[in-house]
Design goal:
Blueprint: E1 16-21, H1 27-41, E2 45-50, H2 74-90, H3 94-119, E3 127-130, E4 146-151, H4 155-161, H5 167-182, E5 186-189, H6 192-202, E6 231-236, H7 244-253, E7 257-262, E8 287-289, H8 296-300, H9 304-310, E9 316-319, E10 331-334, H10 339-345, H11 349-365, H12 368-371, H13 374-379, H14 383-395
Parallel strand pairs: 1-2, 1-3, 3-4, 4-5, 6-7, 6-8, 8-9, 9-10
Helix pairs in contact: 2-3, 4-5, 9-11
Length: about 400
């Protein structure tokens, strides 16, 4: 996030904001941390609660406490037991994954609602923001604070495409989620096309929308041309939506693809895995790469890493079936069959630089300081608040 102007006056008292999130070290950590910094930069009092290990004795990576229950309280013991049941019954057992995930997921949601309602003094805050569907039930417990559910994407359809629901369970889950989303005081999605998807497929009205698009922090150190052009893939390698087999096949077609993230992929896939790296590594590459399996949500949606690449001025290689790429200029569609030809089509410095400029400019337009501006209007709906938001828009240029 580019820094805001330090020390400017705040004519109104700062608001107290609670952010509830699950910080997994990958995409789920990015937006809540960006929101926290954005609001702190604007003088507000922010508390960020990580619920990733809500039922465990420790949240420290590598600690034995992450495997142990953290409390003798019945609700937390039940959540711990539900976590164990999920791993035992729905991870590797195909029947359990398809037929039992529905019950495990809703049990998790309801137990978290009960625990967080007790542990979080919601009335002490002016605004409560939730960043995950697992914890979003806390927003329905009743509080004088304003509430915002910043939904990653439509949950029921996401779970269905993971192969974790029967058709009957999917219909029930979608009906439940539709009513849940409609009942939110304020509702956002991680990307605006997910909001359109939810309106079209779930039938929600959109009357409570307060859209906060995903953003990025444009880097002062941009990528530079190099020959041969190198391609970077950065992000989690654990989701089935990543399409690791495709990543391996592309690496055999074009040998200059390096992969960063975790956990380490199956060596048999032949992926050029380079371990973990800081985001600055992207300045050493010429393209960013997205691979993902195809389904209706992925067609309409986006990838968080897409904006990460744009922040460094990397043209982004995106599956050609993904829609709405006009919202993400600097995207370069590809298929497995034409992948090498697409890279080679930008294989000289002049053509690549034009694509890089478009990518970097798109990253500037999606600076967190701009995509999160609606929060300022929510926290200060007065004319003075609107004037400050307008001034911020002027500082960061036209949309």
């Amino acid at each position: 996030m580019t820094p805001t102007t330090p020390g400017r006056p705040h004519p109104r008292p700062p608001k107290r904001v609670l952010i509830v999130a699950q910080l997994d070290g990958y995409a789920n950590s990015v937006k809540p941390l960006a929101i926290e910094r954005f609001l702190l930069d604007h003088g507000h009092d922010v508390r960020l609660v990580d619920t990733n290990c809500l039922a465990r004795a420790s949240s420290t990576p590598g600690s034995p406490g992450r495997m142990l229950p953290g409390s003798p309280r019945p609700a937390k013991l039940a959540l711990y037991a539900n976590d164990i049941a999920s791993k035992a019954l729905t991870r590797r057992w195909r029947f359990g994954r398809r037929h039992l995930s529905y019950y495990v997921l809703l049990t998790d949601h309801r137990l978290r609602r009960r625990i967080l309602r007790t542990e979080l003094a919601l009335d002490d805050f002016d605004l409560v923001i939730c960043e995950t569907p697992f914890d979003a039930g806390v927003l329905t417990t009743g509080t004088r604070a304003e509430t915002l559910y910043d939904c990653p994407n439509p949950w029921a359809d996401e779970v269905r495409h993971e192969g974790r629901l029967t058709e009957r369970q999917h219909r029930r889950f979608r009906r439940w989620e539709r009513d849940f989303l409609e009942g939110m005081e304020h509702l956002s999605f991680s990307w605006e096309t997910y909001a359109r998807y939810a309106q079209a497929h779930y039938g929600i009205s959109g009357d409570n929308f307060l859209q906060l698009n995903w953003g990025c922090t444009p880097s002062a150190r941009r990528a530079r041309w190099a020959d041969p052009p190198r391609v970077a893939y950065v992000g989690s390698l654990s989701s089935q939506f990543i399409d690791l087999p495709l990543l391996g096949r592309l690496g055999r077609l074009y040998p200059h693809i390096d992969v960063y993230g975790g956990p380490p992929p199956d060596p048999s896939l032949g992926i050029a895995y380079r371990g973990y790296a800081s985001p600055e590594i992207l300045s050493e590459y010429q393209f960013g790469l997205i691979t993902c399996t195809r389904d209706p949500i992925r067609e309409e949606g986006f990838s968080a890493k897409h904006l990460h690449y744009l922040a460094y001025g990397l043209p982004v290689l995106v599956p050609a079936w993904r829609r709405h790429l006009d919202l993400l200029r600097g995207s370069v569609p590809y298929t497995e069959e034409n992948f090498t030809a697409v890279v080679e089509s930008l294989g000289d410095a002049h053509r690549w630089r034009r694509a890089s400029d478009a990518a970097y400019e798109q990253g500037r337009r999606l600076d967190w300081n701009r995509t999160l501006e609606p929060l300022l209007r929510l926290l200060d709906p007065t004319p003075a608040g609107s004037e400050r938001e307008a001034a911020s828009a002027v500082r960061h240029g036209p949309r």
